[in-house]
């Protein structure tokens, strides 16, 4: 037969097991809470914080704009280089600039400037 002392020990172990189990459940609740908070912090950083998806899209748009601006400037540089080469090699480009920008003429040429009168504006809207 079993003694009353062994029954007391079993009751004590049962109480200890239930106490330990409740502590484990409490610790699991805290662990789950910490993991949820960590997940929330990581999600915040992914969508809003530094290095977020929104910032990534913004930087991609900025890169695309800068690349198009760079291509425009490269095209302009090629045009200017071609103009510099024309000015260095031949006298035709220099003569054309002197005529158009400075209004110069060759000896023996006559310069005629035509100034058109502006069309009269009829208040009735008829020509």
From TrEMBL:
Keywords: Cell cycle, Cell division, Cell inner membrane, Cell membrane, Coiled coil, Membrane, Transmembrane, Transmembrane helix. Residues 1-30 are cytoplasmic. One of its GO terms (cellular component) is plasma membrane. One of its GO terms (biological process) is FtsZ-dependent cytokinesis. Residues 56-97 form a coiled coil. It is a single-pass type II membrane protein. Pfam families: DivIC. Residues 49-127 are periplasmic. It is found in: Cell inner membrane. Part of a complex composed of FtsB, FtsL and FtsQ. Essential cell division protein. May link together the upstream cell division proteins, which are predominantly cytoplasmic, with the downstream cell division proteins, which are predominantly periplasmic. Belongs to the FtsB family. This is Cell division protein FtsB. It comes from Allochromatium vinosum (strain ATCC 17899 / DSM 180 / NBRC 103801 / NCIMB 10441 / D).
């Amino acid at each position: 037969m079993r003694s009353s002392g062994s029954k007391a020990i079993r009751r004590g172990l049962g109480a200890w097991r239930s106490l330990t189990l409740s502590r484990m459940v409490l610790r699991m609740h805290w662990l789950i809470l910490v993991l949820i908070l960590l997940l929330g912090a990581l999600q915040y950083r992914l969508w809003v914080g530094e290095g977020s998806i929104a910032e990534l899209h913004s930087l991609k748009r900025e890169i695309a704009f800068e690349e198009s601006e760079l291509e425009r400037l490269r095209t302009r540089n090629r045009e200017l280089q071609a103009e510099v080469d024309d000015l260095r090699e031949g006298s035709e480009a220099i003569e054309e600039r002197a005529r158009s920008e400075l209004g110069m003429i060759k000896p023996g040429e006559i310069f005629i400037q035509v100034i058109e009168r502006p069309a009269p504006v009829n208040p009735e809207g008829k020509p």
